[in-house]
Fold this sequence. Notes:
Layout: E1 4-12, E2 46-50, E3 54-65, H1 69-74, E4 83-87, E5 94-98, E6 101-109, E7 114-124, E8 126-130, E9 133-142, E10 149-156, E11 160-163, E12 180-182, E13 192-196, E14 208-209, E15 213-216, E16 231-244, E17 251-268, E18 271-288
Parallel strand pairs: 1-17, 11-13
Antiparallel strand pairs: 1-6, 2-17, 3-4, 3-5, 3-7, 3-8, 7-16, 8-13, 9-10, 10-12, 14-15, 15-16, 17-18
Amino acid sequence: MLNRFFYILVFFMFLTPNVFAIDVSYNCPLDGSGKVDRAEFTSAVKTCFAPATNYAITYEAMALCTTNPETEMRAGRDLDNVCHFVHKTTDTPIDFTLTNSASTSFAATIPQVGTYTHALAITKNEYTIAGEIEFNGTIYGTNEARNAFGGGNFCGPPTGSYKISSFYTDTLTGATLLAACYATSKGASPQSGTLIADSLSTQEFDADIVGVGVLLNSAGNIATSAASVTSFANSYEFASPFTVTASTTSLTFSVSLDQALRIITQPASGLVIAYLAYLGDFNLKVEAN
Length: 289
């Protein structure tokens, strides 16, 4: 029989780079002074990752898996065959607001003996992200009112509530851009916005993009329209798989937010336009004790 234990999730925000990062090439390129180098963004559409100040999100289900759960979902196979759910959608959702550090705990069972390579997180279809990225030159995005263009060396999520599907337009304007840029840093209180992930694409509705995640409807199936989306399923491959043995008594999770803010930019006639800033990677590490 599986032993019961008190499952402890400990979340830390690490401002040192790449504590658990999968791929350092995703990080925003820095100049010698530690600012993001604008020159690297002038020739092509670019996506990069930077630290977030905090985010708030609701976890509906969490699992540890012996293979990529997204692959199993797309093939229509039962996740219970490859995943151990430490929290299920039938349980009370867990609300996290992560800043420099936070922790929570709940009762769970130790997974079966084996080696676990991936985590699966199913979250509510909206979350709040806060943070800002400092460039060494002017970047253009929306202004703080989100009714015109704004510009400056600092960019982050816009204030208010916004949807990825708002990009279903032929023209990017200050009112539709989902990244705010401004001249003066917000310091310890950066702007924050609540993103509603009703599509994984900015061009047309797409609920399933390999490497990005899967959007689900209320029945737990892959959504067929933006209006039906209620949850977001995202898998994470551990940088170092962990093994549960017969003597394992507990697990400790750590989460690095050093890549938790994602920004997408594109060049335009010598300018650099930031058009989307949202939740990036919250990199995980699991230790078996």
